[in-house]
Design a protein that fits this description.
alpha/beta, about 260 residues, Rossmann fold
Length: about 260
């Protein structure tokens, strides 16, 4: 088991990619702390899957956009599970159908705080933990192909993901001497609750799949396996990298 004895924190792990990652990590030997904001039932299901794999699971309700809530989360993990080795910043906020000219300030701030500021808050707390314990460790940021592609009518989402890309590159340099790896997995269209509106509309789904060279959506466990690689010893020499997992979507010149 490639994560045997490791302790990981995965934000937004009540469904989708976060839930799949928690399950994969547990199967590979890690104890897992998970956070959620509203879906308590989903978080309980994630905990059930982790515990079914024989590992400990700590479930925490928090607000990753609130730095005080993030600090309390890290304190609880330290008290209940021990020293963290891995941080997976997965929690995110989607948006669509809102042109910039019609955008209200509350929406703009919410997207940027959840998708961009929250990874900063979590990384800051994790770095302090790792430095207090001799360095080392893995930071994984879940981004999106929106990090690279234009996002009309959801500009703040694309802005936030592009910012995550810059954060990753900057942190990889800042933390090199601490031997803390910082990397990104950028998914394309993945079948999760966050994208359910696309899958409930056959016409919209067909249009989306036509733009993807593999003509299918990805599954959460496919992203989880990519995250596992970057959080394992196999990726010790990889830092500052964005691994795009999108069925070739970003390779569609002008068609994405």
């Amino acid at each position: 088991m490639i994560l045997q004895g490791r302790c990981a924190l995965i934000t937004g792990a009540d469904s989708g990619i976060g839930q799949a990652t928690a399950e994969v990590f547990a199967r590979e030997g890690a104890d897992v702390a998970i956070t959620y904001n509203t879906d308590a039932e989903g978080a309980r299901e994630t905990a059930r899957r982790v515990e079914a794999a024989g590992r400990r699971c700590l479930v925490i309700r928090n607000d990753v956009s609130d730095p005080a809530s993030v600090e309390a989360t890290f304190a609880q993990v330290a008290a209940d599970l021990g020293v963290l080795d891995i941080l997976v910043n997965n929690a995110g906020q989607a948006m669509n159908g809102m042109p910039v000219a019609e955008m209200d300030d509350d929406t703009l701030e919410r997207i940027l705080r959840v998708n961009l500021m929250a990874p900063v808050y979590c990384a800051r707390a994790f770095i302090k933990v790792r430095r207090a314990n001799g360095g080392g460790g893995k930071i994984l940021l879940v981004s999106s192909v929106a990090q690279h592609l234009p996002t009309p009518e959801s500009a703040p989402y694309g802005m936030s993901k592009a910012g995550v890309g810059s954060l990753c590159r900057s942190l990889s340099r800042e933390l090199a001497e601490d031997r803390i790896n910082v990397n990104i997995v950028a998914p394309g269209l993945i079948q999760t609750p966050m994208t359910s509106d696309r899958f409930e509309n056959p016409e919209k789904l067909a249009q989306s799949l036509e733009r993807i060279p593999w003509h299918r959506a990805g599954q959460p466990d496919e992203i989880a396996k990519a995250i596992l690689y970057l959080c394992s010893e196999a990726a010790d020499y990889v830092t500052g990298h964005t691994l795009v997992v999108d069925g070739g979507l970003t390779m569609q010149w002008g068609g994405a």
